[in-house]
Amino acid sequence: MGALGAFGRVTGAVWVLVRNDALLPRELDHLYPPSMGALAKALRLFAGSGARSGRPGERLARSLESMGPVAIKLGQLLSTRGDFFGREFAEDLSRLKDRLPPFPTAVARAEVERTLGRTIESLYAEFGEPMAAASLAQAHEAKLLDGRKVAVKVLRPGIEIRVRNDAESLDLAARLIERWVPPARRLEPRAFAETVIRATILELDLRLEAAGADELREVMALDGYMAVPPIVWEGVGKRVLTMEWARGWPLSDPGALTQPGLDRQAMADNLIRAFLSQALDHGVFHADLHEGNLFAAAPAQLTAVDFGIIGRIGPPERRYLAEILWGFLNKDYEGVARTHFDAGYVPAHHSVAAFAQALRAVGEPVFGRPASEVPMSRVLTQLFEITALYDMHLRPELVLLQKTMMTVEGVARRIQPDHDIWRAADPVVRRWMTRELSPLARIRRFADEAATALKNLARLIENPPAAAVEVGETRRGGSALLWFAAGAVVAGGAFLAAMYWG
Questions:
Q1: Where would you tag: which of 73, 114, 256, 414 has the fewest CB atoms within 10 A of its CB?
Q2: In this predicted structure, what is the pLDDT of residue 455?
């Protein structure tokens, strides 16, 4: 029944797009090849009255809003990339960020009391009407008994069922795409769907969000590029989260960028640097940085809210990211190419030099030009062609990172249309490279690896069968002498490293 229901929902989603002329909109008829143009005209025979009103972005926004939370999040991502899809299209989708229909305040108050196990009056001196409503939850302005102004986030009633249904539909859609659209297989649609589903399910426990917000508040405070309001822990439960009020205006408000004294260039720089410092320096980042989740205050202060999606990347991925960015910053296309091969992003049977040549073709037309003159849709198309040419597959562990990078760049360009992402990234990437790839850092990493190897060796000696499974990749019948020799080498390395560090 679950699979049948998912198929029905996928079919229903396609039908909604067709009825709204949002699948192959008439405004793009001049771009379709003959076969696709014929299909578009045939589908338009089934379009409803709504297909005759509104721009393509407005019709798509209506369609996605009716499909559920996961579809709405896709629309939120598209709305950040006016440079890809056009400013008007992005603006039409922007209502999906925080201007969805709210549910009644009485329902929200009852949910707060049920979740926290206390009356509204025992924690809040005031509890107002909803000020923003998104796909999974809505936020209310409130005031604590001690006078602090706070925002109270409450999950939508029955949202768990809708997310479960969306998850089944997305999984089925990914399976169908993987089976029937061979060119899309390298994008790993099933792995991508699993990542999105997992992230969305985690958003349904606001206790986890509160913990993520608290962690990122500590991380962001180290650099000051972005701030996070403190969590009010006594107002946190599985379906309720209370956070101190964010300073400034939401970036989704048209008036946010017209505040007196606003330095748009510095604010765009801060956004890029905040994201990169989170990802590179700490391996944890806010993975939903669209305008509805960012507040702006003069001169260049950014405050983030809504930490339902937290991204994490390990040390190897952080190193690859830094080396790729550093290579592009220095136009070292061969170095960027080598990093792609070292990371396994490009299969080994391809040529490093040829791949470097392809990267140069993408990078050179972009560097040194104002963002407003760079046709990002064309750059994206070229990158997609290159990834296909070199058999590059989507990396599931990097989905949130790539999605957030795309969103952050789009928001930065909305703040400052001529923003140079490479210039903004330079100080953070340069700092990371200086710190992490220096000789001292290499010695420290070697010492850490040596200590880990010694621990594994000691465990193997104490309990050979069990430890061999955990250490992994040990050869059956390997001599103890080999293990002791290896232990002596790493111990010597650790000793030298310790002597060097004093």
A1: 114
A2: 76
- The residue extents of the domains of the chain are 2-98, 248-436, 439-501
Spatial CA neighbour of 233 closest among 200, 264, 211, 262:
211
**Which residue do the tokens 């001599």 mark?**
479
Question: What's the rounded Cα separation, in Å, for the pair 39 and 35?
Answer: 6
Tell me what pLDDT residue 2 has. 66
* DSSP code for 54: S
The greatest distance separating any two alpha carbons of the chain, rounded to the nearest whole angstrom, comes to 80
Question: In whole angstroms, how far apart are CA 429 and each of 319, 326, 442?
Answer: 10, 6, 17
Half-sphere exposure of 372 (CA within 13 A, CB side): 5
- In this prediction, what percent of the chain has a pLDDT beyond 70? 84
Alpha-helical segments (H) within 117-233: 159-180, 189-202, 206-221
State the catalytic residues: 288
Residue 300 contacts by C-beta under 8 Å, 6 or more apart in sequence?
262, 263, 266, 267, 269, 270
Average pLDDT of the residues in 287-315 = 93
In the block, tokens 């993408």 appear at: 362
Q: Is the pLDDT of residue 45 over 90?
A: no
Token pair for 416: 């400052």
Distance CA 223, CA 205 (A): 28
At position 258, the amino acid (one-letter code) is T
pLDDT band with cut points at 50, 70 and 90 for residue 444: low
pLDDT at 415 over 90: yes
CA distance 454 to 413: 50
| Cα–Cα dist 28/42, whole Å | 15
Torsion from C-alpha of 170, 174, 176, 181, nearest 10 degrees: 140
Beta bridge partners of 301: 297
pLDDT in tens, 446-479: 677 677 777 777 777 777 665 555 544 444 333 3
Of 59 and 76, which is predicted with more confidence?
A: 59
Q: Rounded mean pLDDT of the chain?
A: 84
Half-sphere exposure of 124 (CA within 13 A, CB side): 25
Q: Is 75 helix (H, G, I), strand (E, B) or coil?
A: helix
Name the token pair of 467.
């430890």
DSSP string, 309-375: -EEE--HHHHHHHHHHHHHHHTT-HHHHHHHHHHTTSS-TTS-HHHHHHHHHHHHTTTTTS-GGGS-
- Beta-carbon contacts of 176 under 8 Å, excluding residues fewer than 6 positions away, are 10
Among 103-117, 168-182, 222-236, name the one with the lowest average pLDDT. 168-182
